[in-house]
Task: inverse folding
């Protein structure tokens, strides 16, 4: 940062924003239009040159762009809280993702706020953000808390990207959210296929080109030097028109051109040809990065993405576990592991991903999105390395490579029998902390304490505490939203001989106990009705599922529910559709009724948290 | 059949076999080696020419080979009973699958029996089997029941295939199982990659070629005119060696050459090149069919399979829902729908699949295998057509094709609001039967009656009975194994304040009631312990999961459990590994404890059924 930045005269309005992870209140500045450009140029543009690590200039380096928090989060039931998004963004930074698409700021206030926090906390190196906020302070405000920000010492700093349709409001909001990152990016898009232009946009080709050109220029005019443009439904767009519009947006300042197969209709050779044609025919393409974004409707997204890379794309958009609208997106772990295994055949391509963080990222996204992966999911499914499990293995496999193309450790999968520590009921807090660290969780303070007491109570009943048991407890204690209602007690009587009756005790945020009882068609129905009597928020249960986390009849049960609130706020999808937000919650216990109530209370807390924030 | 067949002199030993679906006892004949060849040639070979429907001679016709019942069924926890396999085989015939790999007869007695029944009942046109069994009867036995067999009027008759390693015992067993089909096939395989030959087989190249050549010849010598050969781990085999061994087995009589990417290590261009090279360099290849078999370890199985077809393969091996060992196989629905959507780009390729039966096949395989598909699974996942659901849709989508490349009806997906009938508590048996038929279930007699009463009891408690509710009830009543123990009653008391206690009543096959009670760490633990006290079979609970089948707190809960029996019989995988069989069970109820007990009793019944058969 140059000294000039702090002395430039400008006027600004301030807002404060609270980070649930670092418990820090930030004061943010919205600069008046006339001075904004001058300031942002000084504040951000001067940093851009430093964002070209050596490997990036290597033509064989492939950037990984993760859109789990945008395309993934907008799947039905996958709504995440700001804290959850921050956790995932941090994990993505650990994983070494080059660009994090953190959200679609114009879709809702909550989304804007989440992207902003990710930009501040994950989009900056440790300490540097404090300086930046202070720089603001000098000009706009005196006093207030400035905490530790940034994403930790020595951790890679990803580009933070916000999505925007081709209009000023969307782009303003995206910039408002991402500009606090060290490397901010605006990603804007407009449809270019006949069918979309005619039926959705009701615009002519000329109007679409003009809109794209002017909006890319507008994004640049705000001071954002990293602008990505996507011609939506490129897979079904007329080839010549694509070259034209892409050429125009390059002239207007776009730095990355993303080619989406929006409806997942291409097959690999076809998509590869599309990328090759764009590379060969678009004026100015040599100065920008070509990117892919492949939907999975025919199950071909990973292969299409790889063909894109083979044909010249150097940024690949994907999501953890392949989640996303409909059949989802190319899955990061499949794309990255194929490039790792077959990079040579792909022309020497490589990525900057630290694959050992894949399993933890996968589990975290499963937890927070509520979208479970199937047992036979490639790389991260429960059966993917099942022949390794020892149960189903005799001495016939003399060499591990006979049926294994990568080792579980490559993706960060360690098994109980491989890690040294075994926990029992006499294990102390330190052993628990070490074990959790081994499993990829860096947990301390009150959270460690809470898990420790839960662990103790389980250890009283079970002889062996497995890694999976611990993961379930972490999920129940740590991966939880802000608490409005806390689980107290539950007691039920049920069965085929009579009506189920449940009594529930919840504790509110002031520590006051509330008790209610209800009858229902089953124990969960009865207990949930009792919770409703206490919470008094109109809620509809959309999904309910449960699984035992380990084998054995005394296993911990993990429950997941998805609810929506009647008349709740909506959010806007990239497709232009408005959707009602839904909230998921998880709970774990050795008793399925308790675990069900914990999950339900968790989902209600998540809903109340988001509701409160958007008011 | 020629008259000669019934008059040929031979001696034979007979065995009887009972079909749980048609309730028919068949008498089967094992002919003595010296006369077997002569007979089978007359009985089966004479039929072969009729198995070349016109489209098959079209070079653009792609055969679909389904291995759900072999590769899929050998996944952890996916064990199916004979009745379940028959149901699936019938559905595959409806779907128009060209070849059904019905099992691996040498792996266990139960598998051999299942393949045999599928050969008889699904591998023959309606009525004809009666004739065949009668033909046998003339020579070997007088009297006994001969029922209606074959797979129904006007239904396509698939080839029935059995897997065998390259040894006489495996091939004998495969032939013993498939020879009753109108179009029987033996599929034999041996590994050809350096790593497999060296570490698994401990054989030289010359030995491997000799083994393959002689065993294909042996299969032909039994009278099997349709022999498929697979060089296992072809994806990692030396190219020149592949041409050599494939050329040799063609000379020995192989009619289909299947090229497996056993460890899922190829990427599409690489696998396509492998197929193209084999096509260009293998002597005699023009007289046989090339086939693909792609594992999904990198998430590329569908794309690899399509590239195989593009490069000349005319048989594609796949499974419903893509299930299979580790990350599974190419998924039939993805391969077929891509060929349907993009056949023209693939050079005019097409299949004989009736895609409208895909959804039912997918649901049936999910039910029976216990391998759930993820919500974002392409084609058949719950979210695959989610933007169509009406809940998440506003008026913005003026044209359905903007975000949809195929219609849900194409794969047999109909929604409540689309189908005419709505059921309520006053609906009669006939309305229920019509509705179930609409959903793809052709149910009658006692099964219809049982579902009707379950339907009535649910209708008493729920205002609207959705399609999903009905599917859950069908799954609970119809998709159930033979009954040894029947659910009677359960009553539990549980909660966070004290130990859970359950009382369970089961009814044995003689109608006698058994009651037991137990305490446990939760209601399910307590109830399962009470069941164990009654059943007295050593069982270990491996997996437990539950989900609500519809939104709303009064939804039906569907539970699935997987158990194994201590010291139970094992089966042999194609990899040579021995695995312990595991059994899944499902149950549905509005009370999660009842649904849990039903599922557990179902799994125990499945286990007892298979145990009994193998004794």
Result:
């Amino acid at each position: 940062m140059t000294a000039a930045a702090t002395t430039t005269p400008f006027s600004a309005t301030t807002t404060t924003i609270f980070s649930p992870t670092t418990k820090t209140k930030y004061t943010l500045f919205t600069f008046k239009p006339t001075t904004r450009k001058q300031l942002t140029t000084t504040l951000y543009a001067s940093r851009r040159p430093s964002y070209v690590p050596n490997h990036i200039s290597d033509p064989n380096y492939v950037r990984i762009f993760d859109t789990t928090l945008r395309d993934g989060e907008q799947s039905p039931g996958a709504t995440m809280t700001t804290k959850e998004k921050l956790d995932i963004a941090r994990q993505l930074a650990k994983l070494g993702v080059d660009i994090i698409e953190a959200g679609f700021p114009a879709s809702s206030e909550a989304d804007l706020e989440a992207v902003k926090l990710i930009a501040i906390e994950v989009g900056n190196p440790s300490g540097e953000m404090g300086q930046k906020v202070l720089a603001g302070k000098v000009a706009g405000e005196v006093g207030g808390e400035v905490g530790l920000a940034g994403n930790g010492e020595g951790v890679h700093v990803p580009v933070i990207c916000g999505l925007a349709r081709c209009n000023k409001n969307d782009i303003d909001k995206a910039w408002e959210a991402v500009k606090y990152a060290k490397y901010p990016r605006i990603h804007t898009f407009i449809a270019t296929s006949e069918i979309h232009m005619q039926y959705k946009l009701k615009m002519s080709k000329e109007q679409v080109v003009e809109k794209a050109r002017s909006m890319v220029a507008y994004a640049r005019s705000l001071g954002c030097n990293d602008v990505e443009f996507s011609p939506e439904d490129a897979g079904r767009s007329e080839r010549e028109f694509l070259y034209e519009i892409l050429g125009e947006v390059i002239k207007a300042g776009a730095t990355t051109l993303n080619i989406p197969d929006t409806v997942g209709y291409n097959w690999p050779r076809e998509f590869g040809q599309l990328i090759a044609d764009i590379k060969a025919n678009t004026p100015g393409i040599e100065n920008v990065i070509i990117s892919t974004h492949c939907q999975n409707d025919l199950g071909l997204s990973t292969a299409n993405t790889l063909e894109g890379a083979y044909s010249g794309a150097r940024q690949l958009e994907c999501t953890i576990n392949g989640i996303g609208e409909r059949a989802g997106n190319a899955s990061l772990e499949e794309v990255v592991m194929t490039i790792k295994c077959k990079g040579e055949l792909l022309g020497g391509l490589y990525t900057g991903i630290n694959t050992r963080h894949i399993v933890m990222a996968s589990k975290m996204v499963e937890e927070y999105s509520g979208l479970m992966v199937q047992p036979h999911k490639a790389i991260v499914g429960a059966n993917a390395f099942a022949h390794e499990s020892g149960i189903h293995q005799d001495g016939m496999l003399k060499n591990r490579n006979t049926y294994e193309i990568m080792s579980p450790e490559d993706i960060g999968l360690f098994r109980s029998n491989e890690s040294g520590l075994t926990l029992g009921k006499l294990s102390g807090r330190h052993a628990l902390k070490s074990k959790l660290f081994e499993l990829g969780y860096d947990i301390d303070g009150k959270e460690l304490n809470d898990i420790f007491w839960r662990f103790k109570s389980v250890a009283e009943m079970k002889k062996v505490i497995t890694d999976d048991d611990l993961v379930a407890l972490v999920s129940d204690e740590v991966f939880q939203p802000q608490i409005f209602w806390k689980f107290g007690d539950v007691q039920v009587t049920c069965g085929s001989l009579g009506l189920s009756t449940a009594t529930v005790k919840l504790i509110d945020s002031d520590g006051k106990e509330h008790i209610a009882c209800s009858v229902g068609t089953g124990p969960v129905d009865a207990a949930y009705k009792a919770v409703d009597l206490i919470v008094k928020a109109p809620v509809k249960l959309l999904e309910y599922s449960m699984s035992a986390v380990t084998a054995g009849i005394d296993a911990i049960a993990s429950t997941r529910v998805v609810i929506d609130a009647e008349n709740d706020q909506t959010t806007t999808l990239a497709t232009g559709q408005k959707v009602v937000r839904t909230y998921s919650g998880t709970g774990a216990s050795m008793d399925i009724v308790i675990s069900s109530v914990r999950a339900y209370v968790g989902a209600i807390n998540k809903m109340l948290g988001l509701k409160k924030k958007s008011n």
